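Figure S4 source data
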Amino acid sequence: MRHTCRGTINLATANITVEDSCNFIISNGGAQTYHLKASSEVERQRWVTALELAKAKAVKMLAESDESGDEESVSQTDKTELQNTLRTLSSKVEDLSTCNDLIAKHGTALQRSLSELETLKLPTSNAMINACRDFLMLAQTHSKKWQKSLQYERDQRIRLEETLEQLAKQHNHLERAFRGATVLPASAPGSMDASKDRCYPSKGDLSDEDDDNEFFDAPENIAMPENMGHKRTGSNISGASSDISLDEQYKHQLEDTKKEKRTRIPYKPNYSLNLWSIMKNCIGKELSKIPMPVNFNEPLSMLQRLTEDLEYHELLDRAATCESSLEQLCYVAAFTVSSYSTTVFRTSKPFNPLLGETFELDRLEENGYRSLCEQVSHHPPAAAHHAESKHGWTLRQEIKITSKFRGKYLSIMPLGTIHCIFHATGNHYTWKKVTTTVHNIIVGKLWIDQSGEIEILNHKTSERCILKFVPYSYFSRDVARKVTGEVLDSLGKVHFVLLGTWDEKMDCFRVTATSMENGSESRQRTHEAEDSRVLLWKRNPLPKNAENMYYFSELALTLNALESGTAPTDSRLRPDQRLMENGRWDEANAEKQRLEEKQRISRKRREAEAMKATEEGTPYDLYKALWFERKKDPDTKEVAHVYKGGYWESKEKQDWSMCPDIF
């Protein structure tokens, strides 16, 4: 066209570019651009060729009009563009030639394939067609069956979820019926010596109200609303009156650190909250990654719970004085069992420590030891612990807690090795913890059991002790929470037998060897003889009104008491935990969310710094603990966080400038 109009592109100055096998673009330098798509590569090439030829014709017409003077002279820029267009056209012609050669080559191959196909026998072709038809029909039939099966499985899952709670209730009915038909006595916390053969939970622990619990679907995200809807119901706290004011309950909390250790904490409020409403969406998941309201917690952190292992530190004091390494091993085994005694009624979970959170317990003057814990990892959660005693022993451990909710029960698996070293002899003992199970998550009274096997190894002498925690069984008349053990020398010969329960006591019996008639040596275990019995450990009674104070032991009651001079990262200073201890649970939930969000922001900042360092090629540690460092143990060959020193020196100087701001 010799004139322009809206919606057209002058071919003489158009740019034609190929985008891919079917798409090409025509533009005039920005004002107009057409994106065109052909049905195939051959069709695209036909269009491009036709347009290029038309463009060449337009350029020629433009040149002729310039010579006759009918049109304006072409500027130097237009001439340059014309030359570029001619070069592009030449390139396109070469591409067209190449495409022509390819078409000819593939056309020849296609003709050859068709010729070969014609030479095939007709029955073979028919057989292939019939086989394909049969396969298609079979696939369609099975596809419908699979769809039906999938829908059936979905329906079954829905029905299973709907009936799960009812099954749990029926299960509890059967448990109570069985307990009613058999004699399985259970003692309450206040009557520890009433019976040796105790079973928990007892028949009296399960009320009819447990079967009338109403369950509601929990929201997908477990963020706490402004008001949990906490409602005071009839008090089930024995010895406590609903008329007691909060000030009277909490008056013992803020006491001077110079005074005696506190013997009580504010009573646990009687807030009603359905555990199942939160836990039903957590089946099979790692609970450390799921935010939980403080309503399921006790006002202690995991670091403080770890420190509770030292409640019976005198067992290690006695072990340090033993001349025989085998006798020493007996006391170490009793210490191992004693660390579980505080868990028997403690069904609430501790607070997950924030990264960098610490907890110190300085009992050097009263008991001869001091202890330090630090949260060294957040995911997976891991805490390092170091305790040393002037009585000649050091205890250290790094524990990672992993937990899974299995529907009716919760499994807690501590991972990591515990080390105990005695300075005088150099005896180095190591062991691992057993699995803790919390039962009756859906309905009924929560109760805890310990199960598994512990091997305590003396790396210096190769002597060892095997402890077996027998899981509770409804159909066993054996003593509940039973623990048995054998102390063996380096040759595997048994010298002592241990017997007891992890919630009450452990006894030790010496084993003597006698000769059989055939002359071979055998082991005769005389643990039934009272003259060889030695009481290694017995649990301390719980404080008065412990059932109102989360079943805390005397040591646990003191752990969250405010002390002067501690690090700013100490668990005692954690605000949500303090609010929860004071009974202000709604405020504690809001504060817990604030702390967790602050921790997430810190983690994202470290990750951004690590990414920047990686791009710049500079080394960067994502996170490094403040008071512990990773080292390889020469005996176990395991790499774990070991105390590197400096904390108590910083406390003496009151120099906490290196501590992070986590609260």
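Figure S5 source data
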Amino acid sequence: MQISSVNDVKIYNLSHGKSLPEVRNIQRRIELIQDFEMPTVCTSIKVSRDGQFILATGTYKPRIRCYDTYQLSLKFERCLDSEVVAFDVLSDDYSKLVFLHCDRYVEFHSQHGHYYKTRIPKFGRDFSYHYPSCDLYFVGTSSEVFRLNLEQGRFLNSLQTDAVENNVCDINPVHHLFATGTSEGRVECWDPRVRNRVGMLDCALSSLTEGTEVQGLPSISSLKFNGSLTMAVGTSTGQVLLYDLRSSQPLLVKDHFYNLPIKSLNFHDPLDLVVSADSKIIKIWNKDNGKVFSSIQPQTNINDVCIYPKSGMLFTANEDPKMNTFYIPGEYMALGPAPRWCSFLDNLTEELEESPESTVYDDYKFVTRKDLENLGLSHLVGSSLLRAYMHGFFMDIRLYHKVKSMANPFAYEEYRKDKIRQKIEESRTQRVQVKKLPKVNKELALKLMEEGDDEAELASRKKKGKALPSILGDDRFKLMFENPDYQVDEQSEEFRLLNPIVSKVGQKRKKKLRLLAQQAAASQQVMLCLAPEETSSEEESSDDDKSWVEEVREQKESKKTSQPQFYQIKAGEEFRSFNDMARKQKLQKASLEDRLKLEEQSGTSNVSDTAVGSKQLTFTLKKSEQQRKQQQAEREHHQERKKLRRSAGHLKQHSTEEESSMHKFLPGTFTTRAEGTNKCCKI
């Protein structure tokens, strides 16, 4: 059972239960009617006039099922030759049934079963029964309305409408006015006594309200009379129009806002409510002002809705094997009381309001084969204690906890320590936070940090905006860096297939992780030595830990109170002051040329001559990758500039004249030409 509250109205879904096959817990599950379902899909559902029988049609195979409410079980089931488009109950009980099939056949059933079968000229979509004349009116893919008289057993003259096709029809229960809804969005009304049309309503234009998006001409998808003057019309675009038969304008237009055809219309007279349904939602609203009373939205699409007379219970036929049963208790602002055959629901709903609602899978634990092997329960596969589901099994949660405690008796202590550790970390979040790696997937986190820094730097260079948020700061991926179950196994075959080549960047990252781990371990030891008194009051320390803390505290106090320590210089060692150390570090940072000059000035440089002369070592400094790229870019730039250089051939004659004049006026000089420029050098 599922309880929902919409607009302060509680709705009980009596068909909602465990979705596990063949798992039934009678103490915690309500099964109002036994086997209240279809093999695949239920298409339509109705209640007999005496209220004792519920009849439903569905597939596959096409069939009809009749349920006896007095016995709360299935009474009979009959299979049919083809799918049922619509059906009706002609008698007060199930003894006279009429079925309209999708292959144009009309089938009659009596109390014992199949009685007669005939065929109409065109494919039918709906039909209505006229009790005073015993006529059946069939509408479908034709402009004609076919009439079949059950008393005479023959077809009568059909009614000729102005429509191309007729979708639905209905007969007023008071004055027996016949109405049919067309595909052009009109409603034609006929008087069966004279077989003439007495009126026509254009509902297509009236259904358009302010803000309605027009995608096509709305057709009539449902039709229902209430009393002698009220008529409700549902359109294919999701609007419900309420008409007074004395007016051509609608009294009220109610939009479902789903743009889906209205499939069912019902009236609830005690509270003046209209129950309209499309394939997504059932809306219950007041017929005078259109105010929403409540709404029901099942998990599957809706095919038909039926209200049990004079009660707060309704049934739905869905695109699902299970037929839903909804009950709105008969309290203040509710539909009505429970039916007589299930009057215990009133007391049951009162008890359920006091107890909290339980979740769907609270009694079961999902385990995989690996979990069963770890628990030592592999021998239970195939027994009634395990139910196969997807890639694992469902087992009773009590059995799981019992076996878990036996397999790992210290699991609670580990769980308790983890919780204490989490609380300590939560309390530490109030302090100044230092950017550090998470406990799980450290390498992945380091990679994301580096990529995030690169993206942020790139975004700042381009000045196009901020960088995208990192996965590390996204709460949706929080568990990936906290839960050890999400640890990436780099030794697995899947990881090796996705990452066949181990890059140098990955190796450097691993080396960096090792260094960070060593630094973290060293800092942790220092913190323990400096502040051993910062222990959590929630975590219980053992006697060994307390003794170790006392030893560390004693060592610390002894260091504070001890005398200065003296060190002895060993033989052969040279004592150097702090100035010598600073000079040595400064000398190491200097270039080789500066160090050689400094050694020559101080006289410490020695050059040894041998028989082959003085030896000299030549070497070239290795340039960094950035310097090589910069020089390569400069060379390419110079080459490009040379290609784009303008020709200076027309200046050749002028330049020779200038050179001759310079020889005249500047003796003792000579001129050279190189790359289009004049250079003068003294001899």
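The two ends are 112 Å apart (CA to CA). The first helix runs from residue 203 to 206.
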